[in-house]
Amino acid sequence: MSSHTPGERVAAAVGRGFSKNSYGVIMEYEHPGAADNAEAIVRGMVEEAMAIRDLPIEKIVVAAKDHVVQRIGCAVAGVVFWRNT
């Protein structure tokens, strides 16, 4: 989420839903607003995606951050995958 409006708050969140002995889901959301709102929305997206796939939720992890624009600003959410060997 980017903005060039001074004083505007922008937020991004990413959520991961874990299901025991199966796959999970990753959801991302961004909007003009606060991180706590983005966190709640992405958590709901994860819960809905898990329900649609009939996956029991073992754990949900969400990371969210917001930023108040001074001149030009953005909020970015991402997930890094790595393999443990």
Task: Give the gist of this structure.
Helix content is 21%, strand content 38%.
Helix content: 10-25%
Number of helices: 1
pLDDT average, as an integer? Answer: 95
Number of strands: 5
Strand order of the largest sheet: 3-2-4
How many structural domains? 1
**CATH fourth-tier homologous superfamily:** Pyruvoyl-Dependent Histidine Decarboxylase, subunit B
Strand content: 35-45%
> Biggest β-sheet, characterized?
3 strands, antiparallel
Succession of helices and strands: EEEHEE
The CATH topology corresponds to Pyruvoyl-Dependent Histidine Decarboxylase, Chain B
CATH architecture assignment name = 3-Layer(bba) Sandwich
Question: What structural category arises from helix and sheet content?
Answer: alpha+beta
Word description of this protein:
The strands form two sheets. This protein has a three-stranded antiparallel β-sheet with strand order 3-2-4, covered by helices on one side. A two-stranded antiparallel sheet has the order 1-5. The N and C termini lie far apart (35 Å). By secondary structure, the chain is an alpha+beta fold. Helix content is 21%, strand content 38%. The mean pLDDT is 95. The chain has one helix spanning 35-52, and strands spanning 2-3, 9-18, 25-32, 59-68, 73-74. The protein has one domain (2-74): Pyruvoyl-Dependent Histidine Decarboxylase, subunit B (Pyruvoyl-Dependent Histidine Decarboxylase, Chain B). A hairpin with a 6-residue loop joins strand 2 (9-18) and strand 3 (25-32). It contains one helix and five strands.
